[in-house]
Design goal:
43% helix, 92 residues, alpha+beta
Length: 92
């Protein structure tokens, strides 16, 4: 599902106009992004948790020359952990 498909689905379910729904969807995504950038995590009970984790530095291999070792620096990455209700809905 794309963002525009999500907006379409919400528009149909709530009988609202796209131009009213689109800014709300944009703000939800922007708010999650801002929270993660600020070091917070976003918890949605029953759905899941968005958070930022630190990925440690490590050594990797150059795929074009496997004998060459490449240093991969540490970095922060956003992750999503699904909640129990979401897992149960998907596994059915």
């Amino acid at each position: 599902m794309t963002k525009s498909e999500l907006i379409d689905r919400i528009t149909e379910k709530l009988a609202m106009r796209k131009k009213d729904v689109a800014p709300v969807v944009d703000e939800v995504f922007n708010s999650i992004e801002d929270a993660l950038a600020g070091g917070d995590k976003c918890t949605f009970v029953g759905f899941g948790v968005f958070e930022v984790r630190e990925r440690a530095a490590r050594e990797g291999r150059n795929p074009q020359d496997p004998s060459q070792v490449v240093h991969i620096p540490a970095k922060k990455v956003p992750v999503f952990r699904p909640g129990k209700e979401l897992k149960d809905a998907v596994v059915k």
